[in-house]
Amino acid sequence: MRYLKYFESKETPEELMMKYADDIIRVFVTYNIEFNDDMSYRVGEVIWNSSVGDEFAENGVLTEEMMRQVIEDHKGSWREIEKLLEVYYDCKPFVDSLNKDLVKDIEEVFLDYSDMGQVEVSKTSKFRDDRYAVNIRMKDIFFKINFEEVFGRIKELGFESYHVDGVKNGSTEYMKIEFWKPLPKEEE
After folding, report:
1. What's phi and psi for 147, nearest 5 deg?
2. 61-74 average pLDDT score
3. What backbone phi and psi angles, to 5 degrees, belong to 36?
């Protein structure tokens, strides 16, 4: 059943490897950093069969440059490309779940208020944390928003802190709410 993914495209495995090279690099490097399980061994097997295998075996660290070299080394080797793609497809869902973007979830929390005014949700990166900003423009905003419900639902998404700024200027009111949580700590 797992080989059905290859029938989705009429491209050859080598063409697929080149087409998704940047994402393959991201997935392999991130998986190597974040996980230490049976799949990590399979990631290692793909790397060991390349010119950077000894360097990887020595320090266990996989860099983007090393992974680019792995892709170059595997060009023309049907069996190695198949193995690389199989491991890539198996690791990708785990890596994507680590970097889940919460914009859609936050938009859902504020969905009721988007009918009353303008609501914009964005991810910001000005600090070393996982931070999102919600900008709201509507009349009588401070009376319409149920802060207890909103902050309760945001807390369920894992956010630990928030900051609210608001301005009333004539008939227009503007509010900016930032939610954030610290990034996972890297093990030394």
Report:
1. -60, -35
2. 93
3. -140, 85
Q: Cα angle at 26 between 61 and 54, to 5 degrees?
A: 30
When pLDDT is averaged across residues 138-162 and rounded to a whole number, the result is 86
Range of the domain at 67: 9-98
Residue 121: C-alpha distances to residues 60, 104, 134, 142, 161 (Å) = 39, 8, 5, 18, 16
Do 35 and 55 lie in one domain? The reply is yes
Q: What is the pLDDT of residue 180?
A: 85
Total domains present in the chain: 2
The first and second tokens of residue 126, run together, are 């000005």
Arithmetic mean of pLDDT, 99-107: 76
In DSSP notation, 39-108 reads HHHHHHHHHHTSTTHHHHHHH----HHHHHHHHHHHTT-HHHHHHHHHHHHHHHHHHHHHT---HHHHHH
How many Cα atoms are found within 13 Å in the side-chain-facing hemisphere of 135? Answer: 4
Count, in order, helices (H) and strands (E) of the chain.
Answer: 10, 4
